Amino acid sequence: MEDLLEHKKFIESKSKEIFEHINSIKLTNDEDYKLEITLLSGLSNKICKVSLHAPNIKGIKITDLVFKIFGEGGDLVDRDTELSIMRFLSKSNYGPKIYESDKKTYRVEEYLNNVTTLDVKEKHNPEVIEEMKKAFLLYNSHGDHEYYKDFINLPKKELFDYLLNKDDKQNVINFTVKKLRELSKKTLIPFAKQLRESDKFKNDKETLENLKRIEYYIENFEKLLYDIFPEKSIIALTHNDAHPLNVLVSHKFDKFFLIDHEFCCFNFVGVDMANYNIENLFFLGADDWPFYIIHESDFSVLSEGLYYNRFKDYIEYFSENRKQEYSEVKNIDEILEYMKSKDYYWRCLAVSGLLWFVWAINYLSYDEFANQKSFSYFHFSIDRLVHIYLIAKEIIDKGLK
């Protein structure tokens, strides 16, 4: 709750306005109502539930809101696209209603009752996976996906250059290279200077070596992304951040909502399921520093039947539902068949890992790291690098098809 004190008056004032509007009431007497603010989970944003208690006022139907104050990384997010997607999913019953947003500092959403974040024990539940497939397909069918049909058969180098330098939409290449990487340097440079000059870490060889690795991969990020870029794929709008904390379900699994759309952009079809697979290795809600844990340290689990087959099933599901829209595309059958391969799967895993590696660098803080006060973005970025290295070995050394 301490994190919200500086925003308390604004949250109360704005929530009062919204409660009045959606309930068609007036809250004029302070003694007739009370607003309760409860802090919810959230890494880069401050998220809270606002509840209206007014037992003596008739006609109130909506008593709870979700209020999100955007964090420092808010300038990374395409808020117009995010809002468009949220409204689209809301109409399809896969997301909450949006009550208000200024697209810069805050957003107020419907509070979804009788749902909770997905229990990690249920992360492989077939009912959940089926609903995720439907939600991912909705994503892939939204926005200007038709625009990218003309680029499907472009040579890799030509497509990469177009996405990086000429595409006016937010896609995974320009988003990670031009936005995330460039911004990350502003955080990494002072962090690295403080770390190397500090008495606490000057003899810590492991930490200093990890810092060097981070700097190397940030400097060579564009080449690394190009190397793992698939030769052929279908590009569509993707969520990019599907993991158990961003999935809300009812205990009967008859309600399903995909939330947190801040990092949506145009990316490779299938990357959402790949991202869900790799996120299942992490739990981001741990109570102790570094405030996350890795559930399955044996990385090879990603290549086992459950994980790979789930990815392949999604490509087949996409093909069954969307193939007709690509019927005029040359070699579409061969492309869709390649997208079921382990080579393509590993590349989607690597693209996801790179996005979250460079994202983490943007939140480095020497004081928070040195004092172990909050989520360790430093360790998180290193763990992402470890996964990317292992993925690269699978792609390069094994050449899996």
What structural keywords apply?
three-stranded antiparallel sheet, 12 strands, 12% strand, Aminoglycoside 3'-phosphotransferase, Chain: A, domain 2, 401 residues, 46% helix, Phosphorylase Kinase, domain 1, alpha+beta, five-stranded antiparallel sheet
Architecture overview:
The protein contains 13 helices and twelve strands. With 401 residues, the protein is of the alpha+beta class. The chain has two domains: 2-110, Phosphorylase Kinase, domain 1, CATH 3.30.200.20; 116-398, Aminoglycoside phosphotransferase (APH), C-terminal lobe (Aminoglycoside 3'-phosphotransferase, Chain: A, domain 2, Alpha-Beta Complex), CATH 3.90.1200. The chain has a five-stranded antiparallel beta sheet with strand order 1-2-3-5-4, with helices on both faces. A three-stranded antiparallel beta sheet has the order 6-8-9, with helices on one face. The protein has a two-stranded antiparallel sheet with strand order 7-10. A hairpin with a 6-residue loop joins strand 8 and strand 9 (256-258). It is globular, with a radius of gyration of 22 Å. The protein starts with 7 loop residues before the first helix and ends with a helix.
Outline of the structure:
This protein is α+β, with helices and mostly antiparallel strands and 401 residues long. It is built from 13 helices and twelve strands.
